Amino acid sequence: MPNITHRALVLDRFNSPMRVAEVATPKPGPHEVLVRVRALALNPYDRVVQTLGGLFTPRLKFPAVLGSDVSGEVVAVGQACRRLRVGDRIMGLALGADRRGNRWQEGAFQEMVLLREDCCCRLPDSVRYADASVLPLALATATTGLFMKSQLGLDPPPTLPSPLPQHDSPQRTVIIWGGATSVGSVAIQLATAAGYRVLSTASPHNHQRVRRLGAAVVEDYRQDGVVERIVAAAKGSTVVGLLALGAGSGMPCLRIASQFARRPKVAMASAPIALDRAPIGPQAWWRLVTLPRLIGGFAAMALRARATGVPTCSVWGTDLVDDPLGRHMVVDFAEAALRDGRLIAAPEPLIEGQRLEDIPAAIDVLRLGVSARKVVIDLSGVGM
After folding, report:
1. Pair (209, 87) in one structural domain
2. CA-CA distance, 362 to 137, in Å (whole number)?
């Protein structure tokens, strides 16, 4: 091992600032690889764990290192690893703040991270580390929502491109609300690769971008009549499911689903309101104002789903880690699709720093609002 210590951004307790610390560089377990981090991406969930973890992730062990999205090169492999080798360029899903990992050594916000081999995808030389870092959690969440049997249960795309459409007429349609989000950008590509027709929503300035990813129809989610236009666009096809992405997406998706005689399932990957706005420090007023809205939003969706007979499910992206689908999509499909162009790194990275110290300010940029971009810290210039 070339280094015995490295730097990490550590969270010592909930609702507190993170700090950079020197930590011991771990050795990989049998099915793990040690990766030198070259780029990492931020997600709203990182801020939620930091500020509201006491409510939503109370079992998180401290000290903790947050972060789910990472890319870099393998510097050591466990004795049972058979696929990855030292020197491989990879992107990977970090599980440090997830119940399946729940240890600081597996968090993305550090210079060296332990990843499970089956959570890593080798990168072609044409894909930059900063671009690749936007994909892991989005790929996991989109895969879970679209293809897991407990979710929409759609047919996943084949490892290699299929020369013929997978589905006979009538054409099967998937509705993805929030096509310009990081998960939406990947979900559109996955559903298209699997042979489904995709209807989506986005702000007008992102319509062309979402169409290029594969959406057949894109509507402005803020415009009156958007529900009716999406229902009209689905006419003549079979709607096999809806994926609700972005705060507040659940209710319009329920309204759309209720318009079809055969009610399609709605997979929800977001809360009724944004939860990454909570302050670090005193939160009594924020909680007093926000939590009733959150609970009321969930209650309203549950009542509407029950009243209209629309089946629903909640998406948790890392559920695919222990499912055979995870290896197929993260390893087999993603590696082939990145090479042949069926999967591209989207949305575009927004570089907001080159040091671990830049992460807190970058999280603030993310929570203030980013459109069709994903905030990334580029560590490729950091010497190890």
Report:
1. no
2. 18
For CA atoms 238, 240, 246, 250, the dihedral sign is positive
Domain boundary, last residue among 276, 300, 318: 318
Based on the domain organization, do 207 and 239 belong to the same domain? Answer: yes
Model confidence pLDDT, tens digit, residues 167-216: 444 589 999 999 999 999 999 999 999 999 999 999 999 999 999 999 99
121-168 tens-digit pLDDT: 999 999 999 999 999 999 999 999 999 999 999 999 999 887 645 544
Q: Which residues contact 212 (CB under 8 A, 6 or more apart)?
A: none
Q: Cβ distance 296 to 304 under 8 Å?
A: no
Single residue among 268, 299, 318 that ends a domain in this structure: 318
Query: CA 71, 60, 182, 148 torsion: positive or negative?
Result: positive
Average pLDDT over residues 251-255: 98
Residue 164 maps to a domain: yes
On whether both 105 and 154 belong to a single domain, the answer is no
Q: What is the mean pLDDT of residues 25-36?
A: 97
pLDDT digits (tens, 9 = 90+) for 294-311: 999 999 999 999 999 999
Q: What is the mean pLDDT of the chain?
A: 95
Any bridge partners for residue 8, and if so which? Answer: 21, 110
Domain that holds residue 42: 5-135+345-378
Dihedral Cα 200, 161, 39, 102, nearest 10 deg:
80
CA atoms within 13 A on the CB side of 292: 5
291: CB partners within 8 A, 6+ apart:
none
What Å distances lie between residue 175 and 267, 285, 307, 315, CA to CA? 10, 37, 21, 15
pLDDT tens for 321-363 read 989 999 999 999 999 999 999 999 999 999 999 999 999 999 9
**Domain count of the fold of the chain:** 2
Tell whether 126 is covered by a domain: yes
Residue 333 lies in a domain: no
In-domain check, residue 246 = yes
Indicate which CATH number applies to the domain containing 145.
3.40.50.720
User: Which residue in this structure is represented by tokens 């011991």?
Assistant: 24
Both 220 and 255 in a single domain?
Answer: yes
